Amino acid sequence: MAHGISTFLMFEGQAEEAMTFYVSLFPGSEVWSIERYGPGEMGPEGSVKRADFTLAGHALMCIDSPAKHAFTFTPSVSLFVECADEAELDAAFERLSEGGSVLMPLADYGFSRKFGWVSDRFGVSWQLNLK
Question: DSSP 3-state assignment of 17?
C-alpha cells in the first residue's frame, strides 16, 4: 500500500523561486522542508535537492534537477484549482500568467461560471475554475 501521493515538479535551477511564488498565491499553503545540494554533490551547491510543500492542502515536491533534459512541463498535466471566489480566481490567473502564456482566457465555457488555463513563467500548467 502506498504511503501517499504527491505532485512532483522538476525544475532546472528555479525550484525555490517557483515554490515560493506558488505558496504566496493560495491560502493554506506552506513550505515544509528544503534540502539543498552541498559541496561536491551532483547539483549546484545551494540548489534544491528536494523540497516539500503544500498548496491549499495539496502535497507537492520539487527539485532542481542536476541533469539537463530535452523536455520540460507540458499542459497535458496541470494543476487544477477550484477557487473559493472570483477575486481569488482573477488574482491567481493574473499572477500566474505574468511571463507565461494564456492557454484559455478567463470565460464561461459552459462547464463552469468562470474558467481559465495558463502556463506560468516556469512552464507549469494551471487550470483555474470557479464553480
Answer: helix
Q: Is the dihedral of CA 104, 107, 112, 114 positive or negative?
A: positive
- Phi/psi of residue 81, nearest 5 degrees: -115, 120
Buried b (16+ CB within 10 A) or exposed e, 2-12: eeeeeeebebb
Q: Identify which of 8, 31, 29, 22 has the alpha carbon closest to the alpha carbon of residue 100.
A: 22
Strands 79-82 and 58-64 come out as unpaired
pLDDT in tens, 90-118: 999 999 999 999 999 999 999 999 999 99
Place of cell 494543476: 79
Distance CA 70, CA 79 (A): 22
For 69, residues 6+ apart whose C-beta sits below 8 A from its C-beta are 10, 12
Torsions phi, psi for 35 (to 5 deg): -110, 130
**Contact of 45 with 77, CB cutoff 8 Å:** no
Give the pLDDT confidence of 67-97 residue by residue, as tens digits.
999 999 999 999 999 999 999 999 999 999 9
